[in-house]
Amino acid sequence: MKRLLIAAAALAPVVHPYVAEASSCQGGGSGGGSSGGSSSGSSNASNDRYYHPGLYQNPRVPQQTACEDASDVIGYRRCTKFGAWAKNLKIPHIVIEGGVVVRQFGSLLDSQAGSVIHGNESFAYRVLAQPQRRTLDTAVLSTLRAGVGLPHGFYTAVEVDLGGLAQPGRASTEMMTSGSFGSPDLQQQRGFVVDSVGTIGVHGATHAGGLGVELSGGLRAVSYSFHSSYHDCERTTSIRAFAPIAEARVRGELWLSPWLTAGVTAGTSVIEQHSWMGGVYLGVHTRSFGGDR
Amino acid sequence: MNYSLVLAVLAGCAYKPGSFAHPQSEFPGQRATVGCLDIAVERRTDLPIGPVLGYQFANRCDHPMTIDLGAVAVVGRNAQGTDVGLRPYDPLAELHPVALDGRNVGGESLAYPTDRAITQICVDVATLVHQGAPQWLCLASTTGTVVGSVP
Question: By the 8 A CB rule, do B41 and B28 touch?
């Protein structure tokens, strides 16, 4: 039993290396409400953390040292492996693209309902699209896309588009409740759009660039903003709506350098009429000319 | 971040064939062109085990090119005029053929163990890519030559 106690006492600082910290901080914290002042960079020993020396022998704590070679000769160096200059060919062809796209799609506002709060009053409203024809939203988005080359000219990519509604489809609002001073006046404003898309495609290469045909699918999230005025109270409220995306696209690009392309893309929805997109982008490739030459 | 600067770097870091120049690399020593490769070989200060050669290479072509540093024919000549075939020092068996991407650059330094003083060392750079007729580059010893024994 005595041996067990001795062993436990010896191991305690290793298993709980911060045990000593709690007791040493108790004295420093005796100032009560003045603790803010006592932490102003003083080198008071009572504020210093105490770590048991066993902590540094604990194999679970990694020693952070930068690897530096005294020589770059093969057989003498340890930090850099032979052929580090060929690393990019040991991974799949990756493309990172950034650009701007313009999208037009059917407004998701029709028949949506929302609420706005002014003070302690809450008002419900609903949105009605123009009855004559379908209203369309136009959005301008920044796009960021990461793609990976697959065998036989196929590729896959994921894409996130983020931007604003440059021209939201016009819709009217109808208040469903009223308060002490009547109903708020709602004015439609712009909003923002987030598209998350996955893509699979096939491309063909020419000496100057390449052409691609692809199918994309994902989810669109749109937040429509409304400005609400109610008896000297101004608020902004929004309605969020979601819709699936399924597009057929074509894209063409030119090589600006062995690792840089500039391209254009255009597409149309396969599940929705009058929905289209077009954009321009720059792409950075991990392989010279995409490995196509 | 200035995006135009990033684009300029991306556009400018491709190797221009025949230039023997690259923002990230220098091409010291004797130069040669073999197939798609521009090659510079420099004799560096000897290590105790023997002479050291620095290879710098650049791919002139748009497609990858295989480089076989372990297969390069290297011959050392001692003070008596005797030629000795040299093999690279590779204790970890790292050397193997490696593909260099198109318009890219790379470099390695290899030591060649020998038990005698090597005054001149000659390299057939054509064997680097197993292409074309032999193309020998010969390099004299540097001032810092120190020769020891094979480890």
Answer: no
Determine contact, residues B88/A74, Cβ cutoff 8 Å. yes
Evaluate whether A164 touches A138 at the Cβ level (below 8 Å).
no
* Residue A163 confidence (pLDDT) above 90: yes
B32: domain CATH number? 2.60.40
| Domain hosting residue B118, numbered range | 3-146
Q: Tell me whether residue B52 is in a domain.
A: yes
Position B27 in a domain = yes
Q: Which residues pair with A188 in a beta bridge?
A: A226
> Counting Cβ atoms within 10 Å, is residue B79 exposed (0-12), middle (13-18) or buried (19+)?
exposed
Kindly report, residue by residue over A177-226, the tens digit of the pLDDT: 999 899 999 999 999 999 999 999 999 988 889 999 999 999 999 999 99
Tokens matching residue A46: 């009572």
The DSSP call for residue B7 is H
What parts of chain B have a pLDDT lower than 50? 1, 144-151
pLDDT band of residue A156 (cuts 50, 70, 90) is very high
A226, A116 Cβ separation under 8 angstroms: yes
Residues in chain A: 293
Between CA A55 and CA A34 the distance in angstroms is: 32
**Preferred mutation among B1, B5, B9, B10 to probe A, highest tally of A CBs within 10 A:** B10
Backbone angles phi, psi at A31, to 5 degrees: -75, 0
Q: Tell me what the mean pLDDT of segment A3-30 comes to.
A: 38
Give a yes or no: residue B151 inside a domain.
Answer: no
Asked, for residue B30, whether it belongs to a domain, the answer is yes
Tally the residues of chain B.
Answer: 151
The reply to whether A176 touches chain B by the CB within 8 Å rule is: no
Which residues in chain A are closer than 8 Å to B74, comparing Cβ atoms?
A: none
- Residue B17 half-sphere exposure, CB side, CA atoms within 13 Å? 12
Chain B residues touching residue A259 (CB < 8 angstroms): 10, 13-14
Tell me how many domains chain B contains.
Answer: 1
pTM, entire model: 0.74
Q: Are A130 and A124 spatial neighbours (Cβ–Cβ below 8 Å)?
A: no
ipTM above 0.95, yes or no: no
